[in-house]
Design goal:
The chain has 242 residues and is α+β, with helices and mostly antiparallel strands. It is built from eight helices and eight strands; from the N terminus they run H-H-H-H-E-E-H-E-E-H-E-E-H-E-H-E. The chain starts with 5 loop residues before the first helix and ends in a 6-residue tail after the last strand. The model has no long low-confidence stretch (mean pLDDT 90).
């Protein structure tokens, strides 16, 4: 898995995300609405909806917000959002992959382009960087929440159908085939593990260090993209800092 640690990035950005909690809830509501509208309001029969609800809960989204988004879908709302991806390069040549849900493609495309160009990046054509990332299921377990040692964790991950386990002092990180993600997640929960994070994500095949003189620009670009109401996820191939 090329030594990439999402846990490091999750913890590193946690405080910033806490400060933007209202915006995070708004984006999650949009995901819940779209999942419920396309696959039905029952999470037991709609794996996509269940996954988004789990993601919302891990972000401490209030139950009322979740119910409201589902009811909106059940009520026949005419709102519709298109799933759009954007690809480009951040300062220092770091690949960036952006996922958006938008009700106005022209607005979002313009905003994303401005975010790249104003922060030393460049927006590329479709397919320009997507091949550098792999779609994976990702599960993180905070080691402080379990007594399992690495051998036991590896055994349980393999039994559950996981593909790879990465271990650090703070966390166990499990990677799965996207199609097996729900089964692996459910098996680990059944084994008694408390999941700190569980989602489908994009993992870079290789990483690129951000040059010291480009770091501030790089961070401004990522912040600008994440601040956009239409942008759901921003993935980069930036190498983890030591």
């Amino acid at each position: 898995m090329s030594g990439h640690s999402k846990w490091h990035n999750i913890q590193g950005r946690k405080n910033a995300q806490d400060a933007k909690r209202g915006k995070v809830f708004q984006k999650l509501s949009r995901e819940i609405y779209m999942a419920a509208k396309s696959g039905g309001p029952d999470p037991d029969g709609n794996p996509t909806l269940r996954m988004v609800i789990d993601k919302a809960r891990s972000n401490n989204m209030p139950k009322d917000n979740i119910k409201r988004a589902i009811k909106k879908a059940e009520g026949g709302s005419e709102e519709h959002y298109d799933e759009i991806t954007y690809e480009g390069y951040a300062p220092g040549g770091v690949a960036v992959f952006v996922e958006a849900l938008t009700d106005n493609k022209n607005r979002t495309a313009s905003d994303v382009r401005v975010a790249f160009t104003r922060n030393g990046g460049s927006l590329g054509a479709t397919g320009s960087v997507a091949y550098m990332f792999d779609r994976k299921g990702y599960i993180a377990i905070d080691r402080s929440t379990t007594d399992a040692d690495e051998d036991q964790m590896l055994l349980d991950v393999m039994d559950a159908g996981g593909d790879d386990l990465q271990t650090s002092d703070d966390a166990y990180e499990i990677y799965t085939d996207p199609k097996e993600f729900a089964a692996v997640r459910d098996a680990l929960i059944k084994d008694g593990y408390k999941l700190a994070d569980a989602e489908l994500t994009m993992i870079p095949q290789n990483t690129t260090p951000v040059p010291a003189d480009k770091k501030e620009q790089f961070e401004h670009l990522v912040d600008a993209l994440e601040d956009n109401d239409d942008v759901q996820n921003v993935y980069t191939a930036a190498a983890d800092e030591d």
